[in-house]
TrEMBL record:
It comes from Dacryopinax primogenitus (strain DJM 731) (Brown rot fungus). GO terms for cellular component: cytosol. It comes from the Eukaryota. Residues 1-253, 286-305, 530-562 are annotated as: Disordered. Its EC number is 3.6.4.13. This is RNA helicase. The keyword Hydrolase applies. The keyword Transmembrane helix does not apply. PANTHER family: ATP-DEPENDENT RNA HELICASE DBPA, ATP-DEPENDENT RNA HELICASE RHLE-RELATED.
Length: 813
């Protein structure tokens, strides 16, 4: 016999296994009470395999596992063969009745399979030998942990196989007995089994299955019918399996127009869609999906995904595609209608974000030519600012008339971007909106408004940063605007009479077929989206209770439960990185049918974002911040020298974003860092720069929504300018690399990848605030770091910060 095989037998035991279970004809080597130790090859005990008596088991247990180098040959191959199950006089009958007869061939086959599984071929010196896996692990330094994991997996598989087997057998018995009963009228099925009449059982099983399933075609037809029925039955919003297979953007064209596809390619190159984009595209363009598990129409959708995950594109693509598709039909009228009103409204909480979103829309539609107006870009075309301080051109002073006359929404506008209150003002809906509780404790939205203009064609309303827009400060304006759009749409659809009482038929809405998806795995670690009884605001009704003055009527809008549950006559899309408990409550009460598309990493920090906690030294806090900033730049300089051998200049410094809690604190920090030769730029809600209607002052910090590579070009240009100035002035010019701000800039803004560090100086107000501040870096797979100041000994660190530190760890993706 071949030497290598002999070595193998010596090294191992005589237990014969196949895929984690003992081979047929062999009794389980496991003891009746003891469980197999981890890492051993013993299969879990199973009633399927009869156990041997203890004495016979001890015979079979290997004394030692030997190294192939030991050269000792304990009792050789014969001994191993003798370990194969022996038929004891007491067990043999039972074995014979349950298993096929053992033959030399079958024994040989078992041995081969056993060796294949237990042993592996390896090279020792110049010869190839079979060695026991455990020995091999030791030879190659494989860790016990790795072995344990593998062994656990095998054990699990083995158990699964056993369970599956027993289920199968039970099912077989059922069918078997039923069939036998029918065929021969015999009730005593046990008798036939005792006689070993298994062939009849098998036949019966096959017969029954064939009769049950019918032909393949019949089966498919039935399956199709069942699926269709499920589609009809699926109540909204039901969870269905999400189609998360990543396809390139090109796979969505059509329906994505070639123009949009080209713009996306210019922006992202060949990058595939992010997970939330895949969810969204599969949902809004279901015709593209191969599997179509459950589809149902819905006009309300929530997109939830971590910061920097590409939610903007996730909602813009379906909206812009839909606008492009319906453009033809819209233009068919008298040719003028299109110019009267926008077809999509995009709401965002800050002017900075509105401007950035508008720039993104413009970039995406520069080929398809959809017109975009941003109400936060107030300077009318053709007018130049007289002086830098020309107050008349600030945001607040731009009137709807200005827009109408020179810039505005009465000219072609497919998409309008703005904050909710600016929209109300520009559409002449309201100067003031407030939410109050009336005497009965019901929520009342109070608004003064003029004639509702220009909202009758709105097909899409997108609410970005939905948890802020539906939060305490913005809710009255957002809800009021949604109310007015709804009214205008119903009027346009000829349903102005008692609109609150009857639900709006879905067919009248240009809603695409949608897939109902809810990612189960979404972490809701620190927010509770299920409203509690105390959370739920009182129900809503619309009722005119106050007499309206002739020109500017005042309407008190009560929220009405019937109205709250009817679908809006337009598509409503909310986008957020945090589903806060108050947003959850709002959705449960006002939009119970909303479909939620949630990325599995919702409420997690981006995977590429690192977190650092820094203690205060106990002295001047500004000095600590300055020290941190210099240490960041010093590290960068060292890394650059090592990697490229080049000298690190002030132009090479990465950008740093610092968050404070108040405007005054931000201003003070800016001043003090300036004294330490750190050039900073401070932007808070009180800064006059904000009112100039452009994001120019944030240039270098914000990402430019333009062709891929343009960001790099812009930064290179900026560096060049600095260098030229430097030469001209013969003065060292230090570009501003530190932006100090408050939570104002923590929402939605897409900062450039050069913003690599975010410093959180003051304790964020809550976890949501922390997630958004931290999320300004580490975006779209770029590296980033968030540094949270305030860590100290247990005494100096507030309990809140301690909690935040612990939770930040759990937020790792
Ligand atoms: N598929 C993609 N591949 C690579 N980069 C992408 C992709 N989609 C979007 N991006 C980029 O990711 C960045 C972040 O996108 P976006 O601003 O939409 O994130 P977000 O999820 O809205 O973040 P936030 O929650 O902070 O608002 C943008 O610069 C965008 O160009």
């Amino acid at each position: 016999m071949n030497r290598t095989v002999r070595l193998a037998r010596e090294a191992g035991g005589g237990q014969t296994r196949y895929k984690g279970r003992p081979l047929r004809g062999q009794n389980s080597p496991e003891g009746s009470t003891s469980r197999a130790p981890r890492g051993s090859r013993t299969p879990p005990s199973s009633s399927r395999f009869p156990r041997k008596s203890d004495s016979s088991r001890s015979d079979r247990r290997p004394e030692s596992r030997l190294s192939p180098h030991s050269g000792s040959t304990p009792s050789g191959s014969d001994r191993n063969l003798s370990r194969l199950p022996r038929r004891t006089s007491e067990g043999s009958d039972r074995n014979l009745s349950r298993f096929p007869r053992r033959t030399p061939e079958s024994d040989d086959k078992f041995r081969r399979v056993y060796e294949k599984n237990m042993y592996s071929r390896t090279k020792v010196g110049h010869s190839r030998v079979y060695v026991n896996r455990e020995v091999k692990d030791k030879m190659y330094g494989r860790t016990t942990k790795a072995r344990e994991v593998e062994s656990d997996t095998q054990e699990r598989r083995s158990r699964k196989w056993e369970e599956g087997g027993s289920r199968e057998r039970a099912r077989g018995r059922e069918i078997d007995s039923g069939n036998l009963e029918r065929r021969s009228g015999r009730r005593d099925v046990g008798a036939s089994r005792e006689r070993g009449d298994h062939s009849r059982g098998r036949e019966a099983t096959m017969d029954t299955q064939e009769r049950r399933l019918g032909s393949k075609e019949e089966y498919r037809e039935r399956r199709e019918r069942r699926r269709n029925r499920e589609d009809e039955d699926a109540a909204l919003p039901t969870a269905g399996p999400a189609d998360t297979k990543v396809r390139p953007f090109t796979a969505y064209s059509p329906p994505l127009s070639p123009g949009l596809l080209q713009s996306v390619t210019e922006l992202l190159g060949t990058n595939p869609p992010s997970p939330i984009q895949t969810l969204s595209l599969n949902y809004f363009f279901p015709q593209n999906r191969k599997s179509n598990p459950r589809t149902k129409k819905s006009s309300e959708t929530l997109l939830g995904a971590e910061t920097g995950s590409g939610k903007t594109l996730a909602y813009l693509l379906p909206v812009l595609q839909s606008l492009k598709e319906t453009e033809q039909t819209e233009d068919k009228g008298d040719g003028k209608q299109r110019f009267n009103s926008p077809r999509a409204l995009i709401l965002a909480p800050t002017h900075e974000l509105c401007r950035q979103l508008a720039a993104s829309v413009k970039q995406l539609t520069h080929i398809d030519k959809l017109r975009t107006v941003c109400f936060s870009n107030p300077i009318p075309k053709g007018r130049k600012r007289a002086t830098a301080n020309d107050e008349s051109l600030y945001d607040e002073d731009v009137t709807p008339e200005d827009y109408e006359a020179q810039h505005g929404f009465l000219r072609p506008a497919d998409v309008v971007v703005g904050t909710p209150s600016k929209m109300l003002e520009m559409f002449r809906l309201s100067d003031s909106v407030e939410e109050k509780l009336d005497e009965q404790g019901e929520v009342v939205i109070k608004a003064d408004y003029g004639e509702s203009k220009g909202l009758d064609r709105v097909q899409w309303v997108v609410v970005d940063e939905a948890d802020v827009s539906f939060g305490k400060n913005f809710r009255p304006a957002t809800r009021a605007l949604l109310h007015f759009v709804r009214e205008a749409r119903l009027k346009a659809l000829g349903r102005s009479k008692a609109p609150d009482k009857e639900p709006v038929p879905q067919d009248e809405i240009t809603t695409p077929e949608v897939q109902v998806i809810e990612a189960e795995s979404a972490e809701k670690e620190y927010t509770n989206v299920t409203p509690t009884v105390t959370d739920v605001p009182p129900p809503v009704s619309t009722e005119d209770t106050s007499a309206a003055p002739a020109e500017k009527p005042t309407t008190t809008t009560k929220v009405d439960p019937t109205k709250a549950f009817t679908a809006p006559p337009f598509n409503l899309v909310l986008s957020t990185a945090t589903v806060s408990s108050s947003l959850g409550t709002q959705l449960a009460v006002y939009h119970p049918r909303m479909i939620q598309l949630l990325s599995p990493n919702l409420h997690k920090l981006p995977a590429t974002l690192r977190t650092e906690h820094v203690s205060w030294s106990g002295g001047n806090r500004t000095a600590d911040v300055a020290a941190k900033i210099f240490s960041i730049w010093t590290q960068e300089a060292r890394a650059m020298r090592l990697e490229t051998g080049k000298r690190y200049t002030s132009m090479d410094r990465s950008k740093i974003l610092i968050f404070c809690n108040t405007a005054s604190h931000a201003e003070k920090l800016g001043r003090e860092l300036g004294e330490k030769s750190i050039s900073t730029f401070v932007l808070t809600s009180e800064s006059t720069l904000r009112r100039h209607g452009s994001n120019k002052h944030l240039e270098g910090f914000l990402k430019v929504a333009d062709k891929a590579g343009d960001q790099g070009k812009i930064e290179a240009q900026a560096k060049q300018t600095w260098k030229e100035q430097d030469l001209e002035d013969k003065q060292p010019v230090v570009p501003t690399a530190v932006l100090i701000t408050t939570s104002l800039l923590s929402r939605g803004l897409d900062f450039a990848p050069s913003v690599k560090n975010v410093l959180i100086m003051d304790e964020p107000q809550n976890m949501v605030d922390f997630v958004h501040r931290a999320g300004r870096t580490g975006r779209a797979g770029a590296e980033g770091k968030v540094i949270l100041f305030g860590k100290g000994g247990k005494r100096s660190e507030s309990s809140y910060l301690q909690e935040l530190r612990t939770r930040a760890k759990t937020l790792r993706a």
